């Protein structure tokens, strides 16, 4: 079971989470818990780091004081006796590390990606011992574990790639004896470490991924992600008031929805459960009686579109190649740059006769792509025949998702019809040959209407 930041946001939420865990962690039901930092903590740590890099001592020391207050408050409300003193001492030690790192950043006026991972994941090393102590107080034996000792990654700091096989061995070696001993391990989310022990992180929202790594390694019977919503939804409820929770999805459908902006799950986190065939459930810790969304590999005969995903802040780049250059070379060049910069594309389209390649990326990656294109284009533009670059900054991507679209005629016509009736211009279109999703690029301003129209068209 993984609990996100809002499920451990303050003393009350921690208590509610402990109740959920105690309800399930009965005899004969071994359970591993993965926990995020308390709500807002990761954000605060990142803000502190960038303030420190700019020698804004006031800001980072205020943040440090606030983090001390927040965690000590939860401690004093929930714990007592020697356990409380021990957790308080741990909190103090970790916040000293915080002070040391921030002082270091301001001294050298620089925040390296490597140090930032240690700093930004301090929150998880505060929440895990707190929750473990609380479970002990409720009569469960529980042990806090640092995932930096369990999950081995490469050294792409900030968004490290997991080496599953060696991680699996460590996870089993460390956690199985605890489970056999009737303990509930409470593992820090988000964190991993390189082979030589340097702390890394799995990307923002990475605790979901931590949970599926542990679940696949053990292996678990099921992986439950406790969050603050009822499950994955048919559309973003801020755009579509009629959106509702989807009780069941396939791994591929859920991955597609997370990739295109559903914030509920980390986009990479379903790969391992899919391979291992482990069902994943999304549950609401604010409403544990509700069933949430079940994600698994069963075949279902649900026809057509199951949900509309959307990303409202994207940029579309169009690259015009020289007519003489094979399209595949143009594509190879452009994608090698994107790969080198770790940029993920949302939608890709090609027009071979004209040698035009278009792709949409998240807006946060836009500047990086622009800089790279400008750099590669000059000075030897003619060397590889780039004829031009066009950039459309304010676009959104709307995606119809459903395994049942495969082999069903007429779905594309309904998608386009629903958009056309509103007079919305479609800038680019892509459908994978897996027929799992159809993506449309529209202007950002048109996105909410387009999402609503498609949601209605398919009676979601
Ligand atoms: N605490 C980390 C973050 O806010 C990881 C997580 O919550 O999943 O990104
Ligand atoms: Mg999350």
Structure report:
The chain has helices spanning 11-24, 41-53, 57-78, 81-108, 113-120, 122-137, 164-180, 207-217, 251-259, 271-276, 327-340, 363-377, 381-384, 411-420, 447-457; strands at residues 2-3, 33-35, 142-145, 184-188, 191-193, 199-201, 223-227, 248-250, 280-284, 293-296, 307-321, 345-351, 356-362, 386-401, 428-431, 437-443. With 460 residues, the chain is an alpha/beta fold. The chain folds into two domains: 2-220, Carbamate kinase (3-Layer(aba) Sandwich), CATH 3.40.1160; 307-457, VC0802-like. The protein has an eight-stranded mixed β-sheet with strand order 3-4-2-1-7-9-10-8, sandwiched between helices. Strands 12-13-11-14-16-15 form a six-stranded antiparallel β-sheet. The longest helix is centred in the first third of the chain and has 28 residues, at 81-108. It is globular. The structure holds aspartic acid (ASP) and magnesium ion.
């Amino acid at each position: 079971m993984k609990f996100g930041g809002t499920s451990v946001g303050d003393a009350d939420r921690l208590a509610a989470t402990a109740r959920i865990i105690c309800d399930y962690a009965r005899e004969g039901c071994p359970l591993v818990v993965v926990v995020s930092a308390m709500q807002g903590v990761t954000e605060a740590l990142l803000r502190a780091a960038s303030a420190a890099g700019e020698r804004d001592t006031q800001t980072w020391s205020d943040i440090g004081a606030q983090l001390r207050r927040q965690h000590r408050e939860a401690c004093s409300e929930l714990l007592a006796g020697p356990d409380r003193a021990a957790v308080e001492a741990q909190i103090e030690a970790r916040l000293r590390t915080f002070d040391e790192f921030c002082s270091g950043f301001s001294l050298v006026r620089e925040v390296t990606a490597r140090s930032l991972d240690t700093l930004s994941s301090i929150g998880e090393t505060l929440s895990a011992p707190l929750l473990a102590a609380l479970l002990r107080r409720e009569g469960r034996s529980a042990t806090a574990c640092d995932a930096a000792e369990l999950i081995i990654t490469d050294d792409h700091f900030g968004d490290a790639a997991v080496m599953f096989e060696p991680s699996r061995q460590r996870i089993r070696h460390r956690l199985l004896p605890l489970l056999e001993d009737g303990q509930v391990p409470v593992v820090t989310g988000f964190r991993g470490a390189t082979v030589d022990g340097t702390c890394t992180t799995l990307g923002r929202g990475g605790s979901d991924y931590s949970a599926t790594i542990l679940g696949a390694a053990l292996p678990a019977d099921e992986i439950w992600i406790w969050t603050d919503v009822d499950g994955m939804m048919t559309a973003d409820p801020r755009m579509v008031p009629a959106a509702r929770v989807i009780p069941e999805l396939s791994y591929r459908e859920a991955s597609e929805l997370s990739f295109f902006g559903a914030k509920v799950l980390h986009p990479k986190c379903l790969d391992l459960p899919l391979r291992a065939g482990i069902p994943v459930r999304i549950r609401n810790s604010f409403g544990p009686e509700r069933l949430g969304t079940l994600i698994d590999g069963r075949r279902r005969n649900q026809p057509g579109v199951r949900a509309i995903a959307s990303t409202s802040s994207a940029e579309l780049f169009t690259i015009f190649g020289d007519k003489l250059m094979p399209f595949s070379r143009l594509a190879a060049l452009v994608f090698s740059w994107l790969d080198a910069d770790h940029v993920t594309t949302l939608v890709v389209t090609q027009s071979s006769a004209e040698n035009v390649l278009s792709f949409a990326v998240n807006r946060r990656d836009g500047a990086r792509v622009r800089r790279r294109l400008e750099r590669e284009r000059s000075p030897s533009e003619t060397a590889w025949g780039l004829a031009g670059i066009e950039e459309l900054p304010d676009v959104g991507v709307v995606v119809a998702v459903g395994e049942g679209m495969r082999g069903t005629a007429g779905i594309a016509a309904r998608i386009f019809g629903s958009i056309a009736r509103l007079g919305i211009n479609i800038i680019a279109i892509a459908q994978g040959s897996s027929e799992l999703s159809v993506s449309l690029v529209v202007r950002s301003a048109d996105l909410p209407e387009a999402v609503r129209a498609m949601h209605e068209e398919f009676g979601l």
